[in-house]
Amino acid sequence: MNRSDLFRTKSVWSLIAQMSIPALVSILVMLLYNMTDMYFVARTGDDDQVAAVSLVMPVFTFLMAVSTMLGNGACTLIAQALGRKEEQMARVYSSLCIWGCIGFGGGFLVLCFLFSGQLLTFLGVNENVWAYTKTYLLVLAAGAPIILLNHSLGSILRGEGAPRQGMTGGMVSTATNIMLDPIFISVFGLGVGGAAVATVLGNLAGCAYFLAYKRRHTSILNMQLQYAKQNLRLLGGLLGLGLPNAVSSSLSGFASTFSNRLLAGHSIGAVAAMGAAGKVTMMITMVQMGVCMGTQPLMAYCHGAKDHARLREALRKLALVTCVLGLSLGTFAFLAREQIISLFISDGELRALGCHIVTITICSAPFMGFFYLGMNYLQASGKALLATVVSALRQGVLLIPLLYLMDALFHLDGPAIAHVAADVAAIAISVGCAIYDIKREAQ
Predict the structure, then answer these.
(1) pLDDT 10s digits, 9-61
(2) Main-chain dihedrals φ then ψ at residue 188, nearest 5 degrees
(3) Counting CB atoms within 10 angstroms of each CB, which of 73, 166, 219, 341 has the fewest?
């Protein structure tokens, strides 16, 4: 049986488990991957280097947003094409995604090297951390095509119904990064620059795994350049479907820049504390996002096959899963916040500030699964523009003005309160749009 036929024949609970578990493992691996650099840099005892990682994170988040745009767009279109039994088109989308990663990654590299000074100034970097931040930024930029390619190849495999293989590639990448971090940071004494080198090499190891998988198995995964060149007009549609996730991620990084600039006005240590606190809430929201993204191919397949009853069943069960996961992880994160913050911050006063920030931001994090479910449903059903608007509201239109308003009202607590207020509003809008569209489709 073709892997894509499982979307049609297997029970919804089984499919949710089959697709969510690899996605969850991939997200947990990504979380570990995301935390690794900051953790090992923190072992140097230099909070300026920790702050450098936090300051560059918006740029890295933007890079991940491009990867998400390409990977999720390809994932959705591949699943829809397989639902219509159009395997050749699925291979076209795969080629467009892969060569898009190479092109966008190369452009990102050039821009970062040409305008590094202006970018660092925009990020709010001061002279104390300038050298650390520039080193970390430029090494990551040099590996941009590899980073984009690694993350997008896993999405292509999810789209064709092979989530376990996509998960394995992510695990290879993260394991390599974790092994190399202490070597480059401590043994070679490269500090934050060594963390960036380990990140690039970890992504390279993930790419090697995916290419080795392609050589051993029949797969939709396709790198033939002629497919991309002959169907370049389809790239716009691919980017459009992946745009909602990309907007959410890139605006998150953009908003983090404003948040960091406001916090730096209080102290540079507050930036490090907010960065560490963000790792705690990220643990909750990214797991919920992983469940929704992991099962998006199922939603897209059902939409392509016009099986609306199965689609509604999947949405009801996914809502329950994300709610239970969010509340469980939220409780754990709150109880363990001091232990988690201490992994990244050595200064006792800054650790206390990080824990205080967590008590605020954790108020909305357990319920973010509803936001991601609504957005992924809109993407899977082809409502790319509406999904993009919903994404932009949360991290841009709502959050950025709230950052300045709440900073004026609550000072150091302001950015954290702004995130909670923006999240609550975004959840309501995302769920409302999804319910409206579901009812309209049922008529």
Answers:
(1) 778 888 888 888 777 776 676 667 667 777 788 788 787 887 888 788 878 87
(2) -85, -10
(3) 219
